[in-house]
């Protein structure tokens, strides 16, 4: 295999990139100056070398602990548990949350071989004060995805954490803001109905 | 490329690329089929949140002969199973049933297996809180019987003689049932099961959940039996999950 094929194959492994797009990207890179292509290669190398998981929350970071864990303005009494680091970005974009985070690294899924041992749960328990941790957390917001597996994961965490006297809450689920009831799917409407609130 | 429209239950759903999902569906006439639901992970997907494990509905997909993956065209919701995720034993039990079917399933018509799975998911969802565990055991054993490899409990697997009810006998995992006193093969892989446990097992195979004081031995028996009779001897991941869910806090 030649150099062009090698690069095309590697690019085609990226999410959302098919073989044809990968080939187009390869030719695009070949048309740029060598220095520009080297800069891209260096940036990829740097991210691979420097970025790792925060030992405290599991977020992806260059410094350990990560910037979010070190930020003194964030409320350490509230921890929001998410499945993936990308979920942190989604919550941060709302500008509504000022607590800390914890990344599980997935959700419980027996069919895929993901049990509690495969998730970043021990570190969470340590943060809650289970074994030599801070013990200053008042509330755990479980923000796992609103799927069957996400629900089971939330329930598992709730059972694990409740004996420690920490308040456990779950993100609300229902109709999207600005959406149209007519076009919402049955499961979402059913969830919105069961989670209705008093006005 | 004919469009197949059939009742279906989602056994497994996993992401494919950034926007799509692959579903493993159980259907009555087409057995287990894999379909690609394009765009199912987009925020404004027409499928919304319905393509989740254990959901019942009517699926339409373009069936391509000699291909393993077909394109989903539509999925009309029958019954959502979100409630299964709100109890770890219900969730583990449903996952176990799905895993057994996925390990044994084929694209052949299997209307009895389909009917059993639908009824089982309903039973697990609707079981009162204290009864979930025996229901999970009963539905797993009766699924095994429906799939055609249930253990022989009435006649000796060695000599075929009728077995007396209520007596403790040797359950041979490899031979797939009980040995009479004369044929007992203690060197074989298995265990002695008391008469009462045999009666419970008979009820489970018929899909009837009987109340149990202790369930650990039943789970162990099920796990060992499945390990011998499924395609690979690897432990079922759902059984490991159930063991963790049932362990005392």
Topology:
The complex is a heterodimer of chains A (199) and B (249).
Chain A: H1 3-12, H2 19-31, H3 34-50, E1 52-53, E2 60-61, H4 67-70, E3 75-82, H5 85-92, E4 99-103, H6 121-127, E5 139-142, H7 148-161, E6 167-170, H8 186-194
Parallel strand pairs in A: 3-4, 3-5, 5-6
Antiparallel strand pairs in A: 1-2
Helix pairs in contact in A: 1-2
Chain B: E1 3-16, E2 20-27, E3 31-37, E4 56-62, E5 69-79, H1 88-104, H2 111-126, H3 132-147, E6 169-172, E7 177-179, E8 190-193, H4 195-205, H5 216-229, H6 237-246
Parallel strand pairs in B: 3-5
Antiparallel strand pairs in B: 1-2, 1-4, 2-3, 4-5, 6-7, 6-8
**Major interchain interface with per-chain residue totals:** A-B, 29 and 39 residues
The count of DSSP E runs of length 2 or more, i.e. the number of strands of chain A, is 6
Query: Which sequence of strands runs across the widest sheet of chain B?
Result: 1-2-3-5-4
Distance between the termini of chain B: 53 Å
Mean pLDDT of chain B: 89
Concise structural overview:
With 199 residues, chain A is an alpha/beta fold.
Which properties best describe this structure?
heterodimer; A: 199 residues; alpha/beta; Helicase, Ruva Protein, domain 3; Dna Topoisomerase Vi A Subunit, Chain: A, domain 2; 2 domains; two-stranded antiparallel ribbon; 6 strands; globular; B: 249 residues; alpha+beta; OB fold (Dihydrolipoamide Acetyltransferase, E2P); five-stranded mixed barrel; three-stranded antiparallel beta sheet; 6 helices
Q: How would you explain this protein's 3D organization?
A:
The complex is a heterodimer of chains A (199) and B (249). With 199 residues, chain A is of the alpha/beta class. Chain A is built from 8 helices and 6 strands. In chain A, strands 4-3-5-6 form a 4-stranded parallel β-sheet. In chain A, β5, α7 and β6 form a beta-alpha-beta unit. The longest helix of chain A has 17 residues. Chain A starts with a helix and ends in a 5-residue tail after the last helix. Chain B is an alpha+beta fold and 249 residues long. Chain B folds into 2 domains: 78 residues, OB fold (Dihydrolipoamide Acetyltransferase, E2P), CATH 2.40.50.140; 127 residues. In chain B, 34% of the residues lie in helices and 23% in strands. Chain B contains 6 helices and 8 strands, in the order βββββαααβββααα. In chain B, the strands form 2 sheets. In chain B, strands 1-2-3-5-4 form a 5-stranded mixed barrel. In chain B, α1 runs antiparallel to α6. At the A-B interface, α7 and α8 of A face β1, α1 and α6 of B.
